[in-house]
Amino acid sequence: MRDEPYYDDIISFVYELEGDAMSEGATDAKAEPPHAMSEAVVALLRENGHLSRQLFRRRMKALDLTAAEARTLMYIGANPGIVQGRLAELLEVQPIALTRVIDGLAAAGQVERRLSESDRRLRLLFLTPKGRGLVRRLHETHETLNRAITSRLSDEDLAHFAGALADVNASLRQML
């Protein structure tokens, strides 16, 4: 169970630090953030990721899909004819786990497997018309959710936030 007051405290703390920085006339955007601010930012990133996944799972439940099924459909939609083994690599799941997901999607008439003409050992994955319709709904759901999540931010705030997140992303990638 999440300790909601903890996250409320982090949010209050971030606003407090932000206000202190503004009142001191801090203008150096590249200055090293205080240790406490770094911890607060990382905690909020984690919490926002958790909340986003919860919202996504709720939306998928309304479509009678699991998050794994939705991700699989979207990847196949973006990569028609992808080899099942390669899809498992992209999704970072075990091939047997993906086989179970695809079995369910195939049984529901959303995905079809075809043998490769050049290598009969390979199974290629394609969406059926029903699957393509579902992927369109998934994209619409994503777009609606993304707009709702960022609705409190101005275009300028979004641009700054995207830049800051790109920097965090670059740091993470460099650490890998």
List keywords for this structure.
176 residues, mainly alpha, Arc Repressor Mutant, subunit A, 2 domains, three-stranded antiparallel beta sheet, 3 strands, 7% strand
Overall description:
The chain is mostly helical and 176 residues long. The protein folds into 2 domains: 1-24 and 32-62; 66-176, Arc Repressor Mutant, subunit A, CATH 1.10.10. Helix content is 70%, strand content 7%. It contains 7 helices and 3 strands, in the order αααβααββαα. It has helices at residues 4-23, 35-62, 67-78, 84-91, 95-107, 129-149, 155-175; strands at residues 82-83, 111-115, 123-127. The chain has a 3-stranded antiparallel beta sheet with strand order 1-3-2. The longest helix has 28 residues, at 35-62. The radius of gyration is 21 Å and the shape is elongated. 10% of the residues are buried.
Give the arrangement of secondary structure elements.
Elements: H1 4-23, H2 35-62, H3 67-78, E1 82-83, H4 84-91, H5 95-107, E2 111-115, E3 123-127, H6 129-149, H7 155-175
Antiparallel strand pairs: 1-3, 2-3
Nutshell version of this structure?
With 176 residues, this protein is mainly alpha-helical. 70% of the residues lie in helices and 7% in strands.
By DSSP (H or I, 4+ residues per run), the number of helices equals 7
Q: What global shape is seen?
A: elongated
CATH class placement of the largest domain? Mainly Alpha
Number of domains: 2
Indicate the CATH architecture of the largest domain: Orthogonal Bundle
The class by helix and strand makeup works out as mainly alpha
Strand order of the largest sheet: 1-3-2
Succession of helices and strands: HHHEHHEEHH
Work out the strand percent.
Answer: 5-15%
The proportion of residues forming helix, as a percent range, comes to 55-70%
CATH topology of the largest domain: Arc Repressor Mutant, subunit A
Through-space gap between termini: 30 Å
Uncertain spans, ≥5 residues at pLDDT below 50? none
Major β-sheet profile: 3 strands, antiparallel
Whole-number average pLDDT?
Answer: 85
